[in-house]
Amino acid sequence: MSKLNENVLFLIFKELQKDSKSLFSSLMVNRHWCETVIPILWRNPWRYGNSCNKRALFKIIASYYSDDTRELLAKGGLRLVSFESLLFDYLSFCTSINVSYINDIIFMGFQSLINNQSDVRRKSLQQEFYSIIMKKCPRMKYLDMRLNNYNCYFPIDRLHFESLYELKCDTHVPTYFNIIARTSQNIQKFTVSSRQFNIGIVGLIEAQKNLKYFKWNENSQIRCNELYSYNEMLLALGKKTDTIKHLKIDFRHDHHYISRRASKLQDLPKLYKLKSLIINDFRYFNLELLKNCVYHDLEIFKVGYYRLEACSIIIENSGGNLKKIFLGPNKHCQTENLDDNNNPLIFIRKVYENCPLIEYLSIILTPSKEHFSEFENLLKICQHLKSLLIIYLYREELISEETNLKNGEILLKSLIKSAPINLKEIRVCYDCKFSLESLEDFLEKWKGNALTIITNEPIYKEENYTNLINKYKSDGVIRDFIYEPITLLEHELKLYEY
Hints:
Helix content is 41%, strand content 15%. The protein has 20 helices and 14 strands. It has helices at residues 6-15, 20-26, 31-41, 51-62, 67-75, 99-110, 119-136, 174-183, 200-207, 231-238, 255-261, 287-290, 308-316, 331-337, 342-354, 369-381, 401-418, 436-445, 463-474, 486-490, and strands at residues 96-98, 142-144, 166-170, 189-194, 213-218, 246-250, 276-282, 300-306, 324-327, 360-365, 387-392, 425-430, 451-455, 478-483. Helix 9 packs parallel to helix 10 and helix 17 (401-418) packs parallel to helix 18 (436-445).
């Protein structure tokens, strides 16, 4: 193993780049391994973020300081080796900057100087620290500028933006967007944490020649100005139809606020190459305008709050490539979708008519013959289905326990009758219970993969259910049986994250 050639070793270590323990252990095997691992570790050294690593990083970067600065630091109690004494030119391998992490390194490294240096001197030391990184990182590809308290000593105008591939930032430093827009037109992944409206975002989007991924993460804790509008941003994204493949927009969960600005929202951009569409609130887009949004390459569609009618339009206009459809299991939203009994039926029908490759799916199901008939049609046609989230709802406020258990039995019989053999996971939310007898009959007849079943009903934690579940775990029918409170299920929006 230790004699593998450099190319093979590099490919192996590259696969382990998120496994810091294995990489750090590999450094100690021999010099050849060490020389192969160091460039991988130093592409993004900020990801290995414990305090020990921060101290080591500070000492290495500070060793690049000028002789005068190192002498000054030595007087403050910090003794550093010179750059010439290092085994590698570590910073020359670096292709990423994480400003928040670097600020932590600076604070930790200069902590002993706080009482011994003036503010001006400490600012000067920080600027020089950043300047060293800027100078020694000739191929900058990843820049994360997100901060809670922005450090104005970051010399962004000295960065090498020509090769910048991914940018993550806040919206409260408008001048920086203008600088980046002038010096970089090749950003492919762009993530924005929104704090306030910033028109500089629009110019930065428009300047990009190959933008493929855009994420807007709206801060729910800060009240935005009422005149805030997404129109400019959506219009700018709409000009990138030839390149954008992944779009994620996190709206606020403030129903009153969103409804006020809903009339100002533009239609979704007509990004015909889109592969993933993830929107936290999908209730306020105009239905007629949505019909013009045709996404033939769409593979992932995920919404938190929604109207089923709008979701059905997106599915109908997809090109048969959808593999993941996730509907947030929030009960308030489900009640709205039951106002028209046809909506859940139409949604199920649109799925099995337009999504032959679907693997992960959420549906709303109500206990009626028509609903169960369409449910069975879906199971028979969608043979690639691996995970199914059933949001099970009744129209009546109160139902008897007997009715609840009877409908649960019908659901299990539908699964036995029609479920594809690839199905590995079933999630059931809200008003659905299985009697001990019907659950045992289901597990006895199940012939597919070992199942993971997830439910929000605490009844399955009772001893008689636990004994039954453990029996079929031992038999290999059940892989896992998990009880999760509905509050956890409602927030499980990372399930199909791109």
